[in-house]
Amino acid sequence: MKPGEPGYRGPETEDEFLAEVEALPAPLVLQTDRHAMKPQIISSQDYLDPNIVETKRREKDFDVQLSPEFEYEGRTFQIVLDGHHSLEAARQSRRKPRFFTTKPNEIEGFNLTGNGDDGVAEFLQMHYNGADWRNIKTGGPATWGPPKRRKKPIALSSFLPVIGR
After folding, report:
1. Residue 39 is part of which domain span?
2. Between β-strands 63-66 and 134-135, what pairing exists: parallel, antiparallel or unpaired?
3. Which of 13, 16, 92, 105 minimizes the number of CB atoms within 10 Å of its CB?
4. Residue 142's pLDDT is what?
5. Cα-flanking dihedrals φ and ψ of residue 26, to 5°?
6. Do both 5 and 86 map to the same domain?
7. 142 in any annotated domain
8. Whether residue 152 has pLDDT greater than 80
C-alpha cells in the first residue's frame, strides 16, 4: 500500500519512512527551519528619550512600524522604521507591541532589497540610526549569515512509530 490509499497505516520500516520523507516536496522539508519561518526584527537605534517613553506608556501607544521582510546573507529580517519609543514603552508596561508592516512602495530604498546582498546592505545603510544592528527581541547583536546547523544529527529512528506493533 502507498500513502493516501485507504487502509494505509504508515511506514513499517525505517527505509520506508526515509523513502517517504525523501518523496516530500522540497519546500515542505525546508520550511522546518525555524529561522526561515520567522524574521529577525532588528534596529540600530540606541538612544531613547525617557520623557517620550513615559508619554507613550501613559497613552498606551505601543505601535511599531516595520519594514516588509527581506533576506540578507541567508536570513530573513525586518527593521524597525518607527516606534522605537513605543517599543520600549510596551516593554516597560509588560505589554505586547502592535507591529505594523509598511508596504514596500512606501519605504525609501526598499526596491534595493531585490538586488541581492549588496542592495540590502545599501538599504540597511539608508535606515541606519547610529548604533550596531541588534535583535529587538533578545537585545543581542543581529545575527547575520546562514543559520547554524546542529552539530549532531537527530536520529530519524527517534521519530518513527514503534515498528511491528
Report:
1. 34-135
2. unpaired
3. 105
4. 87
5. -55, -45
6. no
7. no
8. no
Domain annotation covers residue 116: yes
Please report whether residue 144 resides in a domain: no
Same domain assignment for residues 23 and 50: no
Q: What's the domain count of the chain?
A: 2
Instruction: Give dist(CA 140, CA 40) in Å, integer.
Output: 11
Contacts of 108 (CB under 8 A, 6+ apart): 126
78 and 119 inside one domain: yes
One-letter amino acid of 106: E
Poorest-confidence range of 5-9, 41-45, 46-50, 125-129?
5-9
The whole-number average pLDDT for the span 89-114 is 89
0.90 surpassed by pTM: no
| Burial call 130-146: b when 16+ CB within 10 Å, e when fewer | eeebbebeeeeebbeee
Q: Which amino acid is at 53?
A: V
Q: Secondary structure of 79-119 in the HEC alphabet?
A: EEEECHHHHHHHHHCCCCCEEEECCHHHCCCHHHHHHHHHH
Identify the DSSP state of 58.
H
